[in-house]
Design brief:
The protein is of the alpha+beta class. It has a single domain (about 5-160), classed as Aminopeptidase. It is built from five helices and seven strands; from the N terminus they run E-H-H-H-E-E-E-H-E-H-E-E. It has a seven-stranded mixed sheet, sandwiched between helices.
Length: about 160
């Protein structure tokens, strides 16, 4: 099950499937334009990608946004990966696809030398978050506001003492 950067028809499928969840009141067309605009900024072109776990035939199993950025930990600059907008199509849920996608993204970040991985979740129930988070080896972080948006963190490399 390869991890790929989503483009073309695969990206269109992801936009179609995620639109009902994350449209923020936009039309389908505006939602697609908003997603494209995020990735089309100078920062987005360098640091943001919509990735997908696909089967051997190229069919979508799960998807997420991957953010690559720099952080300061204990006064030292380091690379980090952010994983957000994790999504599995309804007929494929509860088969481990999202967990596998997160595992592959963390493995990729570790190979790249990243010091930290952050997992962001906002639309699942607390029970669903806990299951996904702990399966993927993350620790639950603090609530950022009154919605159920949570920052989930861990995977700090030992060179930073955690």
């Amino acid at each position: 099950m390869p991890l790929v950067v989503a483009h073309g028809p695969l990206l269109d499928q992801i936009v179609d499937l995620t639109y009902p969840i994350w449209n923020e009141g936009l039309t389908r067309r505006a939602y697609a334009q908003w997603n494209a605009a995020q990735m089309g900024t100078s920062w987005g072109r360098e640091h943001l990608a919509r990735v997908a776990l696909v089967d051997d035939a190229g069919a979508l199993l799960a998807t997420a946004k991957r953010y690559q950025f720099r952080v300061t930990l204990d006064g030292r600059e380091a690379r980090a990966v952010g994983i957000g907008a994790v999504f599995t199509p309804d007929p494929l849920r509860h088969r481990g696809h999202a967990s596998r996608l997160i595992e592959l993204l963390v493995d990729e970040a570790t190979t790249r030398g990243d010091a930290l991985a952050l997992l962001f979740s906002e639309n699942s129930t607390r029970g669903e978050q806990d299951t996904l988070v702990y399966k993927a080896g993350f620790a639950l972080g603090d609530t950022l506001n009154d919605s159920n948006y949570r920052t989930l963190s861990s995977r700090v490399r030992s060179s930073f003492g955690a």
